[in-house]
Amino acid sequence: MNDILFIIQARMGSTRLPGKVLRRLGSNRLLDMIVHRVRQSAFYQKDRDNLVIATSDKETDDILEAHCVKHGFRVFRGSEERVLDRFVKVIEAVKPTVVIRLTGENPFVDPELLDMMIKAHLDQGADYTYILNTPLGICGEAVSAKLLTDISRIQALGDQYQEHVTLYIRDHPDLYHVQFLEAPEQFRGPQYRLTIDTKEDYESIKALYQKAGERPDISASELISLLNRNLGAANEREAE
């Protein structure tokens, strides 16, 4: 069996919304909610705890490390800017075959969608798998751990490829077995943002979460249905 490792990339030093990964959403911290949801994946293995938080070695992330330790989350620290190097250090320590890259601003990452992506990635023996036309923030990326290590060793690798872990693969799809999957109907909604990058995102996500009953296990498909209904109601009001 392929060794799967979920890596959640997170840090406190966001310029647009500092400390967002430990902000509250309902009664939960954002990071705690993401970890809880990822652990619902059929590919999460409790006995080996194949989920880690990859944060920076900056002093600002000491509080994030302390939070992870307190809650029993595995945490690795590395370069803030050279995020690819940070991932490779985790890979070298844990030695997975496949990495599932996630980020710490996506509270509604959906385990059902993750499982669909991972299964397709393994079935096709792909180097990289991504699901298209979902709302931003409800899935992740599946990528070969060896490929990330190989890319990190490319001489004179551009800074943008160090900062954005999978960008080199996406910019060179002819070099690798890349698969882009269409989202199932219930997960479609590319016009929506279910990610928290700015204060405006945070306020709108909080409002949506409250409207949905502040249920940490709510499926992304249910949230999309709620957004569709809200949009339909708004269009009806405009038409009156």
Automatic annotation (TrEMBL):
CDD domains: GT2_SpsF (cd02518). InterPro entries: Cytidylyl_trans (IPR003329), Nucleotide-diphossugar_trans (IPR029044). It holds the Pfam family CTP_transf_3. Gene3D superfamilies: Spore Coat Polysaccharide Biosynthesis Protein SpsA, Chain A (3.90.550.10). One of its GO terms (cellular component) is cytosol. It comes from the Bacteria. This is Spore coat polysaccharide biosynthesis protein SpsF. The lineage of its organism: Bacteria, Bacillati, Bacillota, Bacilli, Bacillales.
